[in-house]
């Protein structure tokens, strides 16, 4: 958990605030979304067990810092970034229109297209005829730059791993779940952070 926080200098961040867990490689959002989920669940666990923070080496870190990290990554994905762009299709006023996805990019015109036959739709500059609503794309590069260009899948391709992480992060961060999510019982099978005390010794007998 300590490595997610910028002050410990484990991972680089873009100027816009996106954590770079792919060592400068592409498709950063899938890693950021899953990190946000893990961080948020860890904070839930801390709160459920009454632990306000932990030590990263000799430095104390409050659970609220980790919660802010998780929120910042999801906010970036949803539009709080230098491009003011949502990287989730259909969310907000500005989002990717050239998603690298076969079903979204090929029109329903009564014809069946082979894999090679679909290339002409992949390579067209027209927007997708179908919105893949709710899909998070690969996202920007390490300079916060993004190309809404279908053939460049590093920017525009959604992934199951990334979208699963985003959905999980949103569920964990939301406060609208009410009684659906019980933070006090969802971790009942997880052992406590500190080891349990050993049993008392047997009574002394002379």
TrEMBL record:
PROSITE patterns, per database record: GH9_2 (PS00592), GH9_3 (PS00698)
Xref: Pfam families: Glyco_hydro_9
Source species, domain of life: Eukaryota
Coiled coil: none
Annotated segments matching region Disordered: 187-206
Bias (Pro residues) ranges: 192-206
Annotated active site: 100, 148, 157
InterPro entries: 6-hairpin_glycosidase_sf (IPR008928), 6hp_glycosidase-like_sf (IPR012341), Glyco_hydro_9 (IPR001701), Glyco_hydro_9_Asp/Glu_AS (IPR033126), Glyco_hydro_9_His_AS (IPR018221)
Keywords (A to Z) from UniProt: Carbohydrate metabolism, Cellulose degradation, Glycosidase, Hydrolase, Polysaccharide degradation
EC number: 3.2.1.4
Recorded family membership: Belongs to the glycosyl hydrolase 9 (cellulase E) family.
Annotated protein name in UniProt: Endoglucanase
């Amino acid at each position: 958990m300590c490595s997610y926080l910028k002050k410990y200098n484990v991972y680089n961040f873009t100027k816009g605030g996106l954590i770079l867990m792919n060592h400068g490689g592409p498709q950063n959002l899938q890693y950021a979304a899953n990190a946000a989920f893990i961080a948020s669940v860890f904070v839930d666990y801390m709160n459920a067990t009454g632990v306000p923070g932990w030590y990263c080496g000799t430095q104390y870190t409050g659970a609220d810092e980790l919660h802010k990290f998780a929120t910042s990554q999801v906010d970036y994905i949803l539009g709080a970034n230098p491009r003011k762009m949502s990287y989730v299709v259909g969310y907000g006023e500005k989002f990717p229109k050239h998603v690298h996805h076969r079903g979204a990019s090929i029109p329903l015109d009564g014809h069946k297209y082979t894999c090679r036959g679909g290339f002409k739709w992949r390579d067209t500059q027209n927007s997708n005829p179908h919105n893949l609503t709710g899909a998070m794309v690969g996202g920007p590069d390490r300079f916060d730059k993004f190309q809404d260009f279908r053939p460049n899948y590093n920017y525009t391709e959604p992934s199951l791993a990334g979208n699963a992480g985003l959905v999980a992060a949103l569920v964990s961060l939301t406060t609208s779940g009410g009684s659906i999510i019980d933070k006090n019982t969802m971790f009942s099978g997880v052992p406590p952070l500190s080891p349990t005390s050993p049993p008392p010794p047997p009574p002394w007998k002379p």
